[in-house]
């Protein structure tokens, strides 16, 4: 008997795997033609290319589902050199397993179709129906420096995350590999790196090696029980603009955490704590007005919760993915094993003065 969401999971995993091939090619071919973007995070050719490949796979399999994605093609319509560079990559990227590539619908027809597909990521989100949310390259700065980045895809149904998949080309495959301080910088996809995390609601979380064809065998992952808070490790963003690092340090100190924080970009942090390589992920608000984007958290939120964790904002509320394209009603993120989440939350609230 096929389990609930089994087709959605398989397509999501294969779509992320195919898009990851493209992002790795972009990284190695150094075609990082960065174009400016309103919120000052760099956009790469890989962002557009990966988004096109993922939406194409989704629309082939689930034509009526909506998609919330970050990029739009207006810029490529007016910049033919950039468009041609992206199209060349998209045209020549496929899974090396014929059946798997076939499941995704194969190649996009032409450059014009590619632009139309990129623009299909314009859903406003919300609480009704099936909506996929994509971050084609989460952690663009990590990507540019050869550190951690992730290709992220999640399915929301009536505002709830049902399926989540995160491809991390530069994380170690080994679930028990501890996080090292330099993992956020020097981590290109050599041998033994590349992992695909996924979860379906109510069915637990898994990790498997990120491959270039059919899916590898997956294994169940779970968060590590914290017996001594002093042995815990916590992850935060590399960029100070993404999370308040001085407050994180005070929180760690009050919790009795003695290890230095591990700083890495992207939802690789969610995957790392879900498999017990790290313990706690803090993202503390840096401004009162900033709203987190749903594509930066949806997949990671489900994977951590299915691995035995709890994920809330700094007020202790679950993340609400049904408001629109942003987490407009939430502020910050705290992800930790269920057993210690309330302890972490109360220290966060004490330091931030939130109640």
Automatic annotation (TrEMBL):
InterPro entries on file: DPNP (IPR006239), Inositol_monoP_metal-BS (IPR020583), Inositol_monoP_superfamily (IPR051090), Inositol_monophosphatase-like (IPR000760), Inositol_monophosphatase_CS (IPR020550)
Cofactor(s) needed: Mg(2+)
Gene Ontology biological process terms from the UniProt entry: inositol phosphate metabolic process; phosphatidylinositol phosphate biosynthetic process; sulfate assimilation; tRNA decay
E.C. code: 3.1.3.7
UniProt keyword list: Hydrolase, Magnesium, Metal-binding
Reactions it catalyzes: adenosine 3',5'-bisphosphate + H2O = AMP + phosphate; 3'-phosphoadenylyl sulfate + H2O = adenosine 5'-phosphosulfate + phosphate; adenosine 2',5'-bisphosphate + H2O = AMP + phosphate
Molecular function as annotated in GO: 3'(2'),5'-bisphosphate nucleotidase activity; metal ion binding
Chain's role: Converts adenosine 3'-phosphate 5'-phosphosulfate (PAPS) to adenosine 5'-phosphosulfate (APS) and 3'(2')-phosphoadenosine 5'-phosphate (PAP) to AMP.
Official protein name in the record: 3'(2'),5'-bisphosphate nucleotidase
């Amino acid at each position: 008997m096929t389990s609930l969401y089994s087709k959605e999971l398989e397509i999501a995993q294969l779509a992320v795997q195919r898009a990851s091939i493209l992002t790795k090619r972009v990284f190695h071919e150094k075609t990082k033609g960065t174009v400016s973007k309103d919120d000052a995070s760099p956009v790469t050719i890989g962002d557009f290319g990966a988004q096109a490949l993922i939406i194409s796979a989704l629309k082939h399999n689930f034509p009526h589902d909506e998609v919330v994605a970050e990029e739009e093609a207006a810029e490529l319509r007016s910049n033919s050199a950039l468009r041609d560079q992206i199209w060349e990559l998209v045209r020549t990227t496929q899974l090396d397993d014929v059946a798997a590539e076939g499941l995704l619908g194969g190649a996009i027809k032409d450059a014009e179709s590619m632009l139309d597909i990129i623009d299909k990521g314009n859903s406003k989100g919300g609480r009704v129906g099936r909506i996929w949310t994509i971050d084609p390259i989460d952690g663009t700065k990590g990507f540019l420096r050869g550190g951690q980045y992730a290709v992220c895809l999640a399915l929301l149904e009536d505002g709830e995350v049902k399926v989540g998949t995160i491809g991390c080309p530069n994380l170690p495959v080994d679930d028990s590999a501890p996080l090292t301080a330099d993992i956020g910088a020097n981590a290109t996809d050599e041998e033994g790196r590349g992992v695909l995390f996924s979860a379906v609601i109510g069915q637990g979380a898994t990790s498997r090696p990120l491959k270039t064809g059919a899916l590898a065998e997956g294994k169940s992952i779970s968060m590590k029980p914290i017996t001594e808070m002093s042995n815990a490790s916590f992850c935060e963003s590399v960029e100070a603009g993404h999370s308040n690092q001085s407050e994180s340090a005070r929180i760690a100190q009050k919790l009795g955490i003695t290890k230095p924080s591990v700083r890495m970009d992207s939802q690789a942090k969610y995957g790392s704590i879900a498999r017990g390589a790290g313990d706690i992920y803090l993202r503390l608000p840096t401004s009162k007005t900033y709203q987190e984007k749903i594509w930066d958290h949806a997949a990671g939120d489900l994977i951590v919760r299915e691995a035995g964790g709890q994920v809330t904002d700094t007020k202790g509320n679950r993340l609400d993915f049904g408001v629109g394209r942003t987490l407009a009603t939430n502020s910050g993120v705290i992800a930790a094993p269920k057993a210690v989440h309330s302890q972490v939350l109360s220290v966060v609230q004490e330091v931030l003065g939130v109640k």
